[in-house]
Design brief:
- By secondary structure, this protein is of the alpha+beta class.
- The protein folds into three domains: about 65-240, no CATH class; about 250-320; about 335-460, Histidine kinase-like ATPase, C-terminal domain (Heat Shock Protein 90, 2-Layer Sandwich), CATH 3.30.565.
- It is about 60% helix and about 5% strand.
- The chain contains eleven helices and five strands.
- The protein has helices at about 30-60, 75-100, 105-120, 130-145, 160-175, 180-200, 210-285, 290-320, 335-345, 365-385, 425-435, and strands at about 350-355, 390-395, 400-410, 440-445, 450-460.
- Helix 10 links the parallel strand 1 (about 350-355) and strand 2.
Length: about 475
């Protein structure tokens, strides 16, 4: 990089050394940047702490129900109101008398201060932080007023005993409603105010009332804050359990529907197979069949086979992993006697009433009736062991419905209550089967302690 030539020297002058330009800024002493950085960091931390403190004290919890307003007992809900009324009724007149008689405060000023220090306790039942602002300002103002009186010598200062009692009552409401950072902020502001007042007016009291209030308010806030957080945790746990119960019920319902769909697959597949065989064998069974009819039967057989393929594909989606299809035929009403005999051998006294002639029962209804009896007896064994049970399967008088009835008496010994939406099949499976066939289900406890399951299933095709 080329440099510019030096300027010409006037005649008669000798060239001298190049002139140095002065620094644009004066040099800083050693160590000053570090000191400025530390001071800046300290100011920043103090500013952030002040902003956090003001935010915590200016953002109260959303006002809602009164303290203990969620309690089931009416008397428990009235406790905060009774406590606030008792504090105001006892502290207000005593504060006026003490300020006038012991501290020499004017009667009107004493009445205003006493009202401001005690009346907001009513508001603390639902808005404790707003009430704290009013009471705290009134307590500080009262300390300033008492400090200027000559009668304050030798008396408790800056807080009177009435102020301590009312303030601790207020801390109960603040601790039960506000968040942890707000409680810490209230506690620190309380201690700072007492320390500052004692520092600038210590000659008026000469005692440690500010330390007493600082310690007691911290203890009250700690205990009530722990109780509030414990209550919040319990409420969240109950909400989570409710959500989990709803999800478990929904999963049980979906699993039951998938199980019913897998069972009904055999019923539908049987009918489709019959259609396929009839369509394939029609040209050989019927002589002189026209060519158009032969093609129609071949198309029907192809459609039936395609439907069976689609059903098997759908069933593979519904089937759980590592689950295999059932190879045994689906049971029906004709196997209810065998089911009852097995239950009797298990030690449960069961009486069976099965109609001699049930007529033609659709396969879906036949399977559903058997499963309802099976699940009803399983519930009796599980929840009412030893109870006398009666099973009845019959047709309605108009021959349009299949009536399935499972009634058991009181259990021989106390057991767990019947699950209506738990993890077992039970009533969930019964409802789904009845809904699938377009029938009706009636379940419920009996006056003697037993239980009744009554299902009415259509014997003719009905939409669910």
């Amino acid at each position: 990089m080329s440099s510019l030539p030096p300027p010409p020297v006037p005649p008669g002058e000798r060239p001298g050394p190049p002139r140095e330009e002065p620094f644009p800024f004066p040099p800083r002493p050693w160590g000053s940047p570090a000191r400025e950085t530390a001071a800046h960091r300290a100011r920043r931390l103090v500013g952030e702490a002040a902003r956090a403190l003001s935010t915590a004290l200016s953002t109260p919890t959303e006002p809602g129900a009164a303290l203990l307003g969620q309690a089931a007992s009416r008397w428990v809900r009235l406790v905060p109101h009774v406590v606030a009324l008792a504090l105001v009724a006892s502290l207000l007149p005593v504060t006026v008398v003490v300020l006038v008689g012991d501290y020499g405060v004017n009667g009107g000023i004493a009445g205003l201060l006493a009202t401001a220090q005690t009346a907001p306790l009513f508001m603390a039942v639902s808005r404790p932080l707003q009430a704290w602002w009013v009471v705290f300002a009134a307590d500080v103002l009262g300390a300033v007023v008492m400090m200027s009186g000559a009668a304050a010598e030798g008396r408790p200062w800056p807080w009177t005993p009435m102020v301590v009692v009312g303030y601790l009552g207020l801390m109960l409401g603040v601790g039960l409603r506000e968040q942890r950072r707000t409680l810490v902020s209230v506690w620190l502001v309380t201690g700072a105010a007492g320390f500052v007042l004692e520092l600038f007016g210590g000659q008026a009291g000469g005692n440690a009332v500010h330390l007493l209030l600082f310690v007691l308010s911290g203890v009250v806030l700690l205990i009530t804050g722990m109780l509030r957080e414990r209550g919040d945790a319990q409420r969240r746990l109950v909400e989570q359990e409710t959500i989990s119960e709803a999800e478990r019920s929904r999963r049980t319902l979906l699993e039951e529907r998938a199980r019913i769909a897998r069972e009904l697959h055999d019923v539908v597949a049987h009918h489709m197979s019959v259609i396929t065989v009839q369509a394939d064998s029609a040209p050989y069974r019927i002589d002189g069949l026209p060519e158009a009819a032969r093609e129609e039967f071949a198309s029907m057989a192809a459609s039936a086979r395609e439907s069976l393929t689609e059903m098997r594909r759908m069933l593979s989606v519904l089937r759980s992993e590592n689950a295999e299809g059932e190879r045994a035929p689906q049971p029906g009403v004709d196997r209810v006697p065998q089911l009852v005999e097995a239950t009797i051998r298990a030690g449960l006294p069961v009486e069976l009433s099965l109609a001699a002639d049930l007529g033609t029962v659709p396969q879906a209804v036949d399977l559903s009736a058997y499963r309802i009896v099976q699940e009803g007896l399983a519930n009796v064994v599980r929840h009412a062991p030893g109870a006398r049970t009666r099973v009845s399967v019959s047709r309605s008088p108009n021959l349009e419905w299949l009536i399935v009835l499972v009634v058991n008496g009181p259990p021989a010994k106390p057991t767990a209550p019947l699950e209506t939406s738990g993890t077992g099949h039970g009533l969930v499976g019964m409802r789904e089967r009845v809904r699938l066939t377009g029938g009706m289900l009636d379940t419920g406890p009996l006056p003697d302690g037993g239980f009744r399951v009554a299902a009415r299933l259509p014997l003719f095709a009905r939409l669910p």
